[in-house]
Amino acid sequence: MSPRPVRLAALAAALLLAGCARQAFRPDQLPDGARADVAILETTDLHANVLGYDYYKQKADPTLGFERTVTLIRRAREQFTNTFLFDAGDTIQGTVLADYQAQVKPVPCGEELAIYRAMDAVGYDGGTVGNHEFNYGLPFLSQVTGTPMNVDGVTAGHCAGPRYPLVLSNVLSTRDGKPIFKPWTIVQRRIAAYTPDGSQLSVPLKVAIIGFAPPPIMDWDQRNLQGKVTVTGVVEAAKKYLPEIEAQHPDLVVAILHGGLDTAPYTPAMENGGWYLAGVPGIDVLLLGHSHTDFPGPRFARMQDVDDTRGFVRGVPAVMGGFFGKDLGVIKLALTRRGDHWSIDKDQTRSQVWPICTKPGDAASCVPADPAIAPLVGKVQQAAVDYVNTPIGSSHVRLSSYFADEGDMTALAAVNAAQLDYVRRELPKTHPELAHVPVLSAAAAFRTGFGGPDDYTDVMPGPLTLRSAADLYFYPNTLAAVRTDGAGVKAWLEKSAERFRQVDPTQAGPQPLINTHFPGFNFDQLQGAGLRYVIDVSKPAGQRIVALTLDGKPVAPDQPFVVVTNNYRASGGGRFPGLDGKSIVLAAPDGTREILAAWLRRHPDLEAKDLPARSWRFAPLKTRGPVTFTAASGKQDVARADGFDGIRQLKENGDGTATYTIDLSR
C-alpha cells in the first residue's frame, strides 16, 4: 500500500477522546509497529433474495437468502473488533419479490425497496451497482437508489433509497458526461489499534470506495441505456478518479467491482476486468462479484498471479462472496503502522468465503435466519406470493429442465411456442417483407442445477399460475427477433454446442458430458418451422452441428431466417457470432415472461400437441466408457417419461444431486 499522510488533527482528537486509550500519544508519535486488524465484509449478487424462500416451489429454502447472511455478518462483527461492510451489486433484481416491486405494483417514491430495507437493518458502509440493476430501467433505478440522475427520461427528485452510499465510476450520462452515481466516496470509522506494548488506541481510519459495473451493460440492456448513458472500461475509470481520491489522503482504497477475473488481453469492454483492476497502482483491496462463484476458491487455481487459497490477485487482497446470500466474503486485513501511514501486512492478511451452509445442499448444516429480517418485508413478501399464485390455466404436460442439457425440451418448448406465436403475429405489422421468412425460436434453460439440486424448472401437470410462467422463464428479459441466414443459424448452434465437452469414444473411463465453464443459460435450443439438427459431441467445438435441415431439406448457408430470442442475446450477450444488436428487426415492449403467461392463458388446457416437437438429438456414438453428468437425484423416471430411456442414475452424491450416465448410441 502506498504511503498516505494521515490528517493529524483528526488523529489527535480521536486519541484525546477515546475512552479506551491506555496511553496518550502526540499525533506525530503514533509509534512504528502499531497494529490494527480490520475485517472487510462483502456481499454480492444477492439478487433480491431477502428471505430463504423458493417462489417456484412455494416453500422455505434455508440454503440461500440474505436473512441468513445477516447471521454471518453479526458473527463476523463479534469476531472482529473493526469491520466494514460493502455490497458489490446485482442487488435489486432476481426474484418474484423484485419483479413484484418493480413491475407489478411498483414501490412508491417514499418507500424503500425490500432488499434495501433489509440491508439497512444490518448497516452497510457502501456498495456499487451491478448489471442487473439496469434491468428495470433508469427511472426505476434512480428512484429506488434515491439517486437523482441527469439522464433523459429520468425525472429529477429524491426518493427513498438505501442509507448507505452507492458508488459507480464508469457509467456516464450522455447529457453531461458525468457519472450517474457518485464515482467514489470516503467512509470514515474509528478503529481499535494497538501499540507495540499492547496499549489500545482509538484512531480514525479513512476508507475510500470506488465502484464499477461491467461494461457490456450497453449490450445487455441496450433498450434501457442506449442514447442515455455511456460506459468506460474499469481500468480507465480507476485511473481517472484515483488522483482525486489520493488527494483526500485515505488510509485504504477499496475497489468494488461487479465483475470477476479474466486474464485474456484487456479491452475497455471486458466483462470481468478484476485481474487488470488489481494491477492499477493505488488500489489496496478488491471486492469482486458477477461470476456467481467464490474467491478465493479452486475455480481460479493456476490463474496467473492469483493466490486462490489466501485470496490475493496480483498482490492485492480480494474476495468474491458467492451469490443469492449463500455466503459472506471476509478479508482480514492486518495493518501495520509505518511512519505516517498504514501498510497491509500481507503475510498476516487472508481472505475467506464463509458459507451459510457448511455442507452444500444440507439444510441441517445451515445457520439460522436472523429473526429481525423477515418482519421487515412480511407484507410485500405475502403480496408477491399471492400475485404469482394467480391462475392462468392448466397443463397435462410436465415441463421440466432436469435433463434439458440432454435434449429434454419440455420446459423450453413452452417458451419457444410463445415466442414463435408472438413474432408471427407482430413482425408482419412492421416488416411485411419478412412475412414469409421462416421463423425460429431460441430458448435456454435458465435453471439447470447451477444453484444446487433445487435449481431446476419443474412445472407439474395440473393448474398453472403466474408462478409457473416465472419458473419457466426466470429472467425479466424482453423479446427480440433478429434477421439472419442459414450460416448464421449454424454458427448460433455451434456456439450453443460449446455447452458440451468433447467425448472420446475410445476412452475406457468415465467422461463428463457437460462443459461447466459454459453456462447453461447460453445453451440456446432452437425450434420452429420444421427445424431439425444433430450435435456430434465427439467432434471439436465449432464442428458439432453435423446435420441441419428444415422440413427434411438441408439448410442452405444463404437461406433467410428470423430467429426469436431475448434482448440480452440479440444485443450481444454471450458473444454469439453475428449478434451485436444490429440485426434486430423486432424489439418487443413486452417482457418474455408476460408473453409466455399470455400464451398459456390462450391455451388453458395445455397438451403436448400444443408444443413444438423436439428439434435436436445427439449423433449416435458408441463409447467404451460411460458418459456422465450431474443432475438432481431421483429424477430418472422423469427422463423415461419424456422418452429418454438411455439416461440412468449411477449414484447419489450426498448433496441432493446424483451422477447419471447417458447412452449416446441410442
Describe the structure using short key phrases.
single chain; 666 residues; alpha/beta; Purple Acid Phosphatase, chain A, domain 2; 5'-nucleotidase,  domain 2; 2 domains; 6-stranded mixed sheet; 36 strands; 22% helix; 26% strand
Give me a quick take on this structure.
The protein is of the alpha/beta class.
Spans of at least 5 consecutive residues whose pLDDT stays below 50 are 1-28
Structural domains: how many: 2
- Content of β-strand: 25-35%
> Helices and strands: which structural class?
alpha/beta
Assembly of the depicted chains: single chain
Mean pLDDT: 92
Largest sheet geometry = 8 strands, mixed
Radius of gyration: 26 Å
CATH superfamily of the largest domain: Metallo-dependent phosphatases
CATH hierarchy class name of the largest domain: Alpha Beta
CATH architecture of the largest domain: 4-Layer Sandwich
Distance, first to last CA: 61 Å
Distinct helical segment count: 16
If you had to describe this structure to a student in words, what would you say it looks like?
The protein is of the alpha/beta class. It has two domains: 20-380, Metallo-dependent phosphatases (Purple Acid Phosphatase, chain A, domain 2), CATH 3.60.21; 389-618, 5'-nucleotidase,  domain 2. Helices cover 22% and strands 26% of the residues. It has 16 helices and 36 strands. The strands form nine sheets. Strands 7, 8, 10, 11, 12, 13, 14 and 15 form an eight-stranded mixed sheet that branches. Strands 1, 4, 5, 16, 17 and 18 form a six-stranded mixed sheet that branches. Strand 16 and strand 17 form a beta hairpin. Helix 4 (114-122) packs antiparallel against helix 10. The model is unreliable at 1-28 (pLDDT under 50).
